[in-house]
Design goal:
single chain, about 180 residues, alpha/beta, Rossmann fold, 7 strands
Length: about 180
């Protein structure tokens, strides 16, 4: 099955802000970026999206400009929950709290948030229990960098520690076969 993994476009957050599951908007104008994304996608597909507005806005645009009937929003596709760090500058997070997480982001939970393992468990649950086994249309999944990296680790059988080795820019479309 063809799957198109689409990362949301650039957010309104300043560089260096940790925004995980905070529901931040996207930079405007976004028409040109959205058009570029649309040109890489099939006209008819099953469309899933994170419910966070930075993904939902893009998903609605994809639906409006294709033959796709509906958007299935799923909270398992939300970005990592950064708990106490949400909307803080990375520079303002105390080093004694940040360093252990930086040394092992896969297993160490953010205070009152998630680890990458937690995010991965959500994403794997989505992949294994939400996507119909016999589906004739391609899938489009509009999500976040952490979610897309988790999907790529799962389908490529990569350890989670390798999830951040490749760049994943805003508005990137990755076509994979599952």
């Amino acid at each position: 099955m063809e799957v198109y993994l689409v990362r949301h476009t650039e957010t309104v957050c300043e560089k260096g802000i940790c925004y995980g599951q905070s529901d931040v908007g996207i930079c405007e104008p976004y028409d040109i970026v959205f058009e570029s994304i649309l040109n890489q996608l099939p006209q008819d597909a099953v469309l899933y999206s994170s419910p966070l507005q930075r993904c939902a806005i893009l998903a609605k645009n994809i639906q409006k400009n294709t033959k796709i009937d509906s958007i299935i929003e799923d909270s398992r596709l939300m970005e990592m929950n950064f708990g106490d760090w949400e909307l803080k500058s990375w520079d303002d997070i105390p080093q004694e709290v940040l360093n252990p997480w930086m040394a092992d982001f896969v297993n160490v939970r953010v205070p009152n948030g998630e680890s990458f393992v937690d995010l991965n468990e959500r994403v794997v649950d989505f992949l294994e229990n939400e996507i119909p086994k016999e589906i004739e249309k391609p899938l489009i999944i509009v999500a976040h960098a952490g979610v897309i990296r988790s999907v790529l680790c799962k389908i490529n059988n990569l350890p989670l520690q390798e999830a951040f080795k490749a760049p994943l820019d805003y508005g990137t479309v990755i076509k994979v076969e599952i």
